[in-house]
Amino acid sequence: MEFGAAMAALGSFERAPRVAVAVSGGADSMALLLLAQEWAAARQGLVIALTVDHGLRPESCAEAAQVGVWAASHDIAHHTLRWGGPKPTAGIQAAARAARYRLLEEWCAEAGVFHLLLAHHQDDQAETFLLRLARGSGLDGLAAMAAIAERPSCRLLRPLLSFPHARLVATLTALGQTWFEDQSNRNDKFARVRLRHGRAILAREGLSAARLAATARRLARARQALERPLAQLLARSATPDPAGFIEFDPAPLAAAPEEVGLRALAAMLMAVGGADYAPRMERLEHLYQEVVTGLTRGRTLGGCRIVPHRGRLLLCREGKALAASVPVGPGTKVNWDGRFRVALPADAPSGLILGALGPVKINEAARTLPAAARIGTAAFRDDRGIMAVPGLGYCRDGARGTVASDAVLLRASRPVTGAGIKVV
């Protein structure tokens, strides 16, 4: 079976695998759910359907409930994950996407599920390639979506990247399963929709979805080949600090092949900036040239500030890009500022605020850092002021053993070097 072969290409699974499937109710995700159920059942495994209700449309709650009904009709457990709280007034699509992945990954972490299946398919891959080509992306962007993305709590798996949308629709039709039609697929304000209008023209010129997806796959293979020299370069050049910044020597970047040097700079920017994607290639190349020829004053890019420091460079969080402070308490788990995953113990005090330290020189470790590096360090405050700064080893007298203990997890949510990518 083709789907079984696609799953096998994604690597090893445990005996009697438990997998979660992100299901919106559209044709692609419904087909993935039923294919995954058949695959898991043959291995005495279990499939769980997860639907994120963003609460952005009046009908979203009813749609999530209907997905639950469809899942139950196939004896599949279903959970609805709701995006609560205030919604941004700008960048709503990006915020909804980030919330969706956060909710899905948090559920997997809590449930101990290591594999999260996503329904991106061949047509999606081709569109992603074209969109990134239009933005002038480099190798990473043109490699499009990876079949495997290692996340802190689970693996994101895309087994349908070689399957066209039409085949998924045909699969559901053969099984007698209905689905929702996404009305946004007809809205020309989205670039993906506009690209679909020209799909027939592109195909006549040889740029079919299958051809474009194959090109992305070959570029992903080239990208994978660069992972080892990238890791070696970062090991020679960069020193990440638990306070949330990176000190690095630009000389190894200048000596490395330009593509590897660019990728190293992008990896550091994403780690400190907490971003999912590298900055635009034109801006990255401009900064890279300044870095390797001798940066003499501060620069900003990707939510980061890069400043000279004692013959090296500091790559720190940009002050105006820092996330807002958030209230935390006993047992709180939160990803703050896209960089730090914080887990407070059950005996942590109530009424704490997690946010940026700012320019405060709280101890000797802080006094030795320039303000650019110190400003974005995570700190805990209470009604008396700063209580603890784990990244600087500071805890106020009388508070030791509460938040500044081994039970506190404070680390970058995106590592400087990744686990590589899988090409299938």
Can you offer a commentary on this structure?
- The protein has a six-stranded mixed sheet, sandwiched between helices. It has a five-stranded antiparallel sheet with strand order 7-8-11-10-9.
- With 424 residues, the chain is α+β, with helices and mostly antiparallel strands.
- The relative contact order is 0.10.
- The C terminus is likely disordered.
- It folds into three domains: 221 residues, HUPs (Rossmann fold, 3-Layer(aba) Sandwich); 93 residues, Chorismate Mutase Domain, subunit A, CATH 1.20.59; 90 residues, no CATH class.
- Helix content is 40%, strand content 20%.
- The two termini are 16 Å apart.
Could you name the key traits of this structure?
5-stranded antiparallel beta sheet, alpha+beta, about 40% helix, 6-stranded mixed beta sheet, Rossmann fold, about 425 residues, single chain, Chorismate Mutase Domain, subunit A, 3 domains, disordered C terminus, about 20% strand
